[in-house]
Amino acid sequence: MNRAFNEQTKMLDFSSLISGTRENLSVVFEFEPEREWLGNSPYAFCGVGRASLEASLNLGKVRLAGNIVIPMRYCCSRCGVEFSENLFIEVSETLDDAQNEEYFNCDGNKVDLGVMIRDLIVTHIPSRVLCKPDCLGLCPVCGTNLNGGRCDCETKLQNESPFAKLKDKFM
Hints:
The chain has helices at residues 15-19, 113-124, 153-160, 164-170; strands at residues 5-6, 11-13, 24-31, 44-45, 49-58, 61-75, 82-96, 104-105, 110-112. The chain is α+β, with helices and mostly antiparallel strands and 171 residues long. Strands 3, 4, 5, 6, 7 and 8 form a 6-stranded mixed beta sheet that branches. Strand 5 and strand 6 form a beta hairpin.
């Protein structure tokens, strides 16, 4: 059991790093993400998140490295299909007890990992996601999902275009 970490409060005490009695502290825990963290995003958390972090001392500052993984439910920005995928956040942060905007603040030799994780998640929620990298989206005329097959609107649009007659001159 890791006595430097309190599972209920998510507080990590890194005084053993500062004193030199330990070289690093490893912390792995699960957490329940809160809906408010998503703001007005159309996405949803669909399970328990997991944080795997290691704290070490580097040039007098505590460095926190590891990752956070959260199962998410997304809606494709092009075709509107819902799909599930993990949000993976690589953590590489420096802790500082001074009020410095470059670092996460800590209180003496303790840091609230719950607040830190929330802040990291909030800043890593994507503004736009695709169900697959080559998603074709929806037909702008009939709304057919073009990933499932073609529609004949493209042919109609080409024939109705005011520039259709120019196509033969440049092709």
